[in-house]
Every structure is written in structure tokens, then in C-alpha cells.
From TrEMBL:
InterPro entries assigned to the protein according to its UniProt record, in alphabetical order: Glyco_hydro_43, Glyco_hydro_beta-prop_sf
Superkingdom assignment: Eukaryota
Name the UniProt record assigns to this protein: Uncharacterized protein LOC116200926 isoform X1
GTP-binding recorded as keyword: no
Alphabetical UniProt keywords: Glycosidase, Hydrolase, Membrane, Transmembrane, Transmembrane helix
A Pfam family this chain is assigned to: Glyco_hydro_43
Coiled-coil segments on the chain, per record: none
Family: Belongs to the glycosyl hydrolase 43 family.
Annotated source species: Punica granatum (Pomegranate)
Any one biological process term the GO annotation gives: carbohydrate metabolic process
Transmembrane intervals: 52-71
């Protein structure tokens, strides 16, 4: 391949020289030659004193540089496509993914005519910003389209009662029941795979309480009850393991007092210490504390001991997550500087604190709800915009190092319709979980918030697939990246590939 590249470069240089010669070979050529014939010798034996020869030399060098640059770009492009093909060919040859990659369309939603005043319990608009009509309908408790966003409980996902064709299927947006027949309460959460017991643990906010506002301009909220935990062997049937980190009822100065805020708990296991470590967003009712809290337990089902909170790296911290890498190192990622920037930094060896190192990424882009994952050496991340409880467009990002720089790949949502894609299927990212035995296949976990009744918020789980070339060029470099496209496929109902749980 190197020899062919040299031949192509030689031919390109020859063509370029011919074009330059043709360009300068006009009627004045004879006069120039006559003038050069009687010119006195110079110190240069190659007619360097001629204006024509000097100009030709300059243009020849420019042409050579252009040709070399073009050949280099083509060579890099071939390498890029070969790399993409090698990274994705193994994935694309597996027919079991074809069902998940089918693009399922959804008819456009017709907005009903107004019926009077907006519900008094509908979320107040921040800064008088008007949302699109469909978002207004989503936020309005009395909307005629309520059943579209929040289906009736009679259509619940019931792993115990479901049989036949609906068994093992996910239905995004429906009420999801646990093995006791109660709605699962694990919002803003994440999943831990405990390899020792081959069990999956789902942790999240337990929002079983009335929705209210702490003050007139406050955001919709529920009192802290604690962090709920559910266990499963198949990622579909979930058993309630109870509250593993409970609220503080009496001490009003405690971080976990019921009047405060506990959001987005994530748990990682530290193999060196044997501890299960939980990180979470801790705040007061006015969202001015903006801190990250940490708790620890000897068992995945708790109870977790709360150790306290801090502003990591001395910065405000709101929506956050924790990511554990293949080598056992763990990182915290949080929205900071009034949600305008994401901060990333490693945790200490025992996962109980942050190191001094920190990187600012996606500066000025106002992203929150980060969900990190890794595939074949590349780090990926899904983020949300900052629009309160209202859904917005997700973005996918990628990097060769968890500390960046991070490139934005665009909106990963595929299928449904334009409104669904621009609102992340009316949901917000919280976690991305890899399916064992199926490289490139993940579960995208998101929350469809119900701000008028937060305990009735729903879960939107969808297949996320990493495969195919990226859609747009690099932001911080030239050309296209070597990583693959991230796609989240909409499905009204879907299930994991048959036999996945036996593949390790």
C-alpha cells in the first residue's frame, strides 16, 4: 500500500507540473527565451535571476504542497473507513440486533384546541420562557393528551401477571410494577451488576409522596424518603429490597432531612475495599447547597451509612453520575458553574472522596443528566439540556480519554417522529447499562418526569447501539473521528435478545 501511495504522489506531482507549464506557456515565452539567451551569467547556474523561473519555482512548491496534502487526506480517510469497518463489522454481522435496529415511526400528535386556563398545578415557566405547544401539553396535568405521555395503570408492565406475547417486553412510559405489584420507585437511578451473586441492583430516588412546592416560585418536589433498591436476575422482573438509605426525620440540619433534596444516586463496588459506595446530588429546597453526598455499605442491599457531603473541587455540583472504568478507577461527573459546564475528576482509591484533578468539559453548553459508558476503548456520554422538568433534546458525546476532550456527536435518538426525537422521547437520561455477552448493545435508561405528580414519573428504557460511522466531523480536530455512531432506537415494545442472560 505504501508503494502505491508513492506512485500516486509522483503522478500527481507530474500532473501539477504540467498544468503549471501550460499556465505559463503563453505567447510571451519566445521573448523570454530570447532575453535569457543574451543575459549575462549569474552566480546561479539555473537562471535563478529570471523572474519567470522564480515564479514557476514558487508555484511548483505550492502545487507540491497541495498535492501532498490532498494525498494525505485521502490516505487518512481510507484508514478511517477501514478502522470504522473493523470496529463495526463484527457487530453488523449479528442478525439478532436487526429487530432492535428497525426504525419504528410514530404519527404526529395532534394538539387539541384550548379548553381554558392552564392547570394551576402545572409547572411554572422559568424566566417566562414559552415551551412549544406539545411540551405545554406534556406539562399540563389536565391535558387531553395525558394518556399519550402517561398511559393508564391498567396497561402496566407486570412481570408476575404478564403472560404470552407481552412477557419479557419493555413498554417505555408505562407503569412498571415490582414483584409485589407496586410501582417501582427508582427514579434518576442506575444499575449495579454484582458479579459474585450474578444479580442486578437498581438504585434510585424513592418518590412515594405528595408533590408540592416549598414556596411560590419553587420547583415541584417531594420530601426525601430515601434511596430505593430493587434486585433482578433478568433486568425485567424486579424485587423490592427496601430503602437502603433513609431520610432523616428529626434533625433539620442533616443533609438527608426530608425537607432537602436527594437526587440521582449511583452505586459502584470497590473491589479493593469490598465496599459498596453511593454518590448522590445533595441540595436544599432552594437548590443553593449544590453538593455531592457519599454513603457506604458492606452489602449491595444496605443499609448504607451516610458519610456527608461536599462541593467537589470547591465547585457547585448538581446533576451528577459516577463512572467506573475497566481498570477499577472511578470518576465523578457533575453539572457545575450554574449548570453551564460539566466537571470531571477521578475519585480516590477508596471511592470516598475526589482527587484534586478536575477537567471542565462542554463549556458553556448547559448540559446535565450525564450518563457515561465505554465501548472498545472509547468513552461515550449522553447528556440533557437544562429545561427543568420539561423534556429536551439529548446529545451524544465521545472521547478517547474519560477526562476529554469530548466531542459532540449530535442527537442519538432514532425513529418515532421529530417531536419525540427532539424531546428524547419525552424523557431525560440517567444511566446507560451494557448487556453482557452482546458487545455494542446497551440499555438507555431515562426518566419521563411527571412534575404534577412526581411519584407517577415513568421509566423509558430503550436499546442503545454503538455501530456505524459518525454523522459529523470533529469539533476540536480535522476530519472524522475513529469512533462509531451512537443510536437510541424508539420502540413501543421491545425485548432483549433471546438467551442474553446466559452469555457472559
Amino acid at each position: 500500500m505504501t508503494g502505491n501511495l508513492g506512485v500516486h504522489r509522483f503522478r500527481a506531482v507530474s500532473d501539477c507540473t504540467a498544468l503549471i507549464a501550460a499556465f505559463f506557456g503563453d505567447k510571451k515565452e519566445d521573448k523570454v527565451r530570447l532575453r535569457l539567451k543574451y543575459r549575462k551569467p549569474t552566480t546561479f547556474p539555473c537562471n535563478a535571476g529570471s523572474r519567470f523561473s522564480f515564479t514557476a519555482l514558487v508555484w511548483t512548491l505550492v502545487g507540491l504542497l497541495l498535492v501532498f496534502h490532498l494525498v494525505s487526506i485521502c490516505h487518512k480517510d481510507n484508514i478511517h473507513h477501514g478502522e470504522i469497518q473493523s470496529r463495526t463489522s463484527g457487530f453488523l454481522r449479528r442478525p439478532i440486533y436487526h429487530e432492535l435496529e428497525v426504525i419504528e415511526e410514530v404519527k404526529n400528535i395532534n394538539i387539541p384546541p384550548p379548553r381554558g386556563k392552564r392547570s394551576s398545578r402545572a409547572p411554572k415557566r422559568k424566566h417566562h420562557k414559552r415551551f412549544s405547544p406539545i411540551i405545554e401539553e406534556f406539562l399540563d396535568e389536565d391535558s387531553q393528551l395525558r394518556h399519550v405521555f402517561f398511559p393508564n395503570r391498567k396497561n402496566s408492565i407486570d412481570p408476575i401477571g404478564m403472560t404470552g406475547n407481552d412477557s419479557s417486553y419493555y413498554f417505555p412510559g408505562r407503569v412498571w410494577l415490582d414483584t409485589d405489584g407496586n410501582p417501582i420507585q427508582a427514579h434518576g437511578g442506575g444499575i449495579l451488576h454484582d458479579e459474585g451473586s450474578e444479580t442486578y441492583y437498581w438504585y434510585g430516588e424513592y418518590k412515594e409522596g405528595p408533590t408540592y412546592r416549598a414556596h411560590k416560585k419553587g420547583a415541584a418536589r417531594v420530601d426525601i424518603i430515601g434511596v430505593g433498591c430493587y434486585s433482578s436476575k433478568d433486568l425485567w422482573t424486579w424485587k423490592n429490597e427496601g430503602i437502603v438509605l433513609a431520610a432523616e426525620e428529626l434533625n433539620a440540619t442533616h443533609d438527608l432531612h426530608k425537607s432537602n433534596v436527594l437526587e440521582r444516586p449511583k452505586v459502584v463496588h470497590n473491589e479493593k475495599t469490598g465496599k459498596y459506595v453511593m454518590w448522590m446530588h445533595i441540595d436544599d429546597a432552594n437548590y443553593t447547597k449544590a453538593s455531592a453526598g457519599v454513603a457506604v455499605s458492606d452489602r449491595p442491599t444496605g443499609p448504607f451509612q451516610y458519610l456527608g457531603s461536599k462541593r467537589p473541587h470547591g465547585c457547585d455540583s448538581r446533576d451528577m453520575t459516577v463512572f467506573k472504568d475497566d481498570d477499577g478507577s472511578a470518576y465523578i461527573v457533575y453539572s457545575s458553574e450554574n449548570n453551564s459546564v460539566l466537571h470531571m475528576g477521578p475519585l480516590t482509591e477508596n471511592y470516598l472522596d475526589v482527587e484534586d484533578v478536575m477537567k471542565r468539559v462542554l463549556i458553556g453548553q448547559h448540559r446535565e443528566a450525564p450518563a457515561l459508558f465505554k465501548y472498545r476503548g472509547t468513552y461515550y456520554m449522553i447528556t440533557s439540556g437544562c429545561t427543568g422538568w420539561a423534556p429536551n433534546e439529548a446529545l451524544a458525546h465521545a472521547a478517547e480519554s474519560v477526562m476529554g476532550p469530548w466531542e459532540t456527536l449530535g442527537n442519538p435518538c432514532v425513529g418515532a417522529n421529530k417531536v419525540f426525537r427532539q424531546t428524547t422521547f419525552f424523557a431525560q437520561s440517567t444511566f446507560v447499562f451494557p448487556i453482557p455477552g452482546h458487545p455494542g448493545l446497551f440499555i438507555f435508561m431515562a426518566d419521563r418526569w411527571n412534575p404534577s405528580n412526581l411519584r407517577d414519573s415513568r421509566y423509558v428504557w430503550l436499546p442503545l447501539i454503538v455501530a456505524g460511522p459518525p454523522d459529523q466531523p470533529l469539533e476540536f480536530g480535522f476530519g472524522f473521528p475513529l469512533w462509531s455512531r451512537v443510536s437510541i432506537y424508539w420502540h413501543r415494545k421491545w425485548r432483549l435478545p433471546s438467551g442474553w442472560s446466559t452469555l457472559r
